[in-house]
Known about the structure:
Helices cover 77% and strands 0% of the residues. It contains 5 helices and no strands. It is found in: Cell membrane.
Amino acid sequence: MNDNRHGRRLIEHVLERVMFGSRWLLAPFYLGLTFALVILLIKFFQKFWHFASHVTSTSTDEMVLGLLGLLDLTLLANLILIVIFAGYENFVSKIEVAADDIDRPEWMGSVDFSGLKLKLIGSLVAISVIELLKDFMNAANGVDETEVKWRIAIHLTFVVSGLVFAIMDWVSDLTHKSKNK
């Protein structure tokens, strides 16, 4: 009987070790996102160079559209960075090399999965707004109405999703606080 319990504990220990170690399977995903950030940086410089080299010959509207495009890429880069840092720290391991770094962002190490969801949806809403602004700025050039309607619908979906996530987190916090009293 005692050997049977020992065998089960050993199996349980091995299973838990394997499952706990499986978190490292996520590390290549975050490394891949880091490389994607480099690719996005190249695209940013390409757009910036095109924007800067034509600044004297473009209209104000075209300049605003160019700036919105750069802002769009910047927000996407921020989104990727948030996912890399928060995802890695929440699911794989602490980023200890940044522990004592003076430039370490305050939110690093403190964004839980719930906070990550809210940051992601907030970034998606901001990116969506920029895309809508581009469409509205381009309206004089003949924008496809169906496409704009879809973008508005998608944007509203992001906004509603963000509100639902925020309400769910708020209710969850209230529930946890009332249980801890």
